[in-house]
Specification:
Layout: H1 3-21, E1 23-24, E2 31-32, H2 34-45, H3 47-63, H4 82-100, H5 107-136, H6 143-178
Helix pairs in contact: 1-2, 1-3, 2-3, 2-4, 2-6, 3-4, 4-5, 5-6
C-alpha cells in the first residue's frame, strides 16, 4: 500500500470510531454516526480501501481498544449490535464498488449507492440482533421485535445520513475532479 492509502484507511477507521461516540441512546440499537463515516469511506476511497478502513476499525475494537459504542474487546462479538459492525465492512465495499462503476456521480446515483450499502448493514445487523438475544442472552425475542428495534426505529436517521453522504460526496468528488485530486 502507498502511504496515502494507509493514511486514508486509518483516517476513516478513526472517523468511524469517533462516530461511535457521537450517539443518541435509543432502546437496543443506539443512533450513531458510524454509518456516516462508513459510507463516506466507501464513496470516497472505493471498495477495497473503504472496506479495509472498516476492517481496521472492527479489528482494533476486537483487539480491545474501546472504539465501539459500548467499549471493545473480543467479547464484543456477543453483543447484539455486532452484526451492524460486520455490515459496515460489507456496506463500505458495496458503496465503493457501485461508485467505482459510475462515470459521473450525481445525487441520485450517490444516494442509490449509499442506500445499497445501508441495505447490507441492516441485512446483517437485524438477524444478528435477533440471534444474539435468543441464542446467547437467552431472552425470547420475536422476529417482529428485531425488525422493529433493529430496523424500523433506526431507518429514519440512517436515511437522513445517507442523504447527507450523497449530497456531500457529489460535491467532494466534483471538487476533486476539477482540481485533479485523487482520493483513491
Amino acid at each position: 500500500m502507498k502511504t496515502k492509502e494507509l493514511i486514508l484507511v486509518s483516517l476513516f477507521a478513526a472517523l468511524t470510531a469517533v462516530g461511535a461516540f457521537i450517539r443518541i441512546p435509543i432502546p437496543y440499537v443506539p443512533f450513531t454516526l458510524q454509518f456516516l463515516f462508513c459510507a463516506f469511506a466507501g464513496m470516497l476511497l472505493g471498495s477495497r480501501l473503504g472496506a479495509l478502513s472498516q476492517i481496521v476499525y472492527v479489528t482494533i475494537g476486537l483487539i480491545g481498544v474501546p472504539v465501539f459504542t459500548e467499549g471493545g474487546g473480543p467479547g464484543y462479538i456477543f453483543k447484539p449490535t455486532f452484526g451492524y459492525l460486520i455490515g459496515f465492512i460489507v456496506s463500505a465495499y458495496v458503496i465503493g464498488k457501485i461508485t467505482e462503476k459510475i462515470k459521473e456521480l450525481t445525487l441520485v446515483k450517490a444516494l442509490s449507492a449509499t442506500l445499497s450499502g445501508l441495505f447490507f448493514v441492516y441485512l446483517l445487523g437485524v438477524p444478528y440482533l435477533y440471534l444474539v438475544y435468543n441464542l446467547y442472552l437467552g431472552e425470547s425475542k420475536t422476529v417482529e421485535w428485531a425488525i422493529f428495534y433493529g430496523f424500523t426505529i433506526c431507518i429514519g436517521s440512517d436515511l437522513l445520513l445517507s442523504l447527507i453522504v450523497a449530497v456531500t460526496a457529489v460535491k467532494v468528488v466534483s471538487f476533486a475532479k476539477k482540481n485533479r485530486l485523487s482520493l483513491n
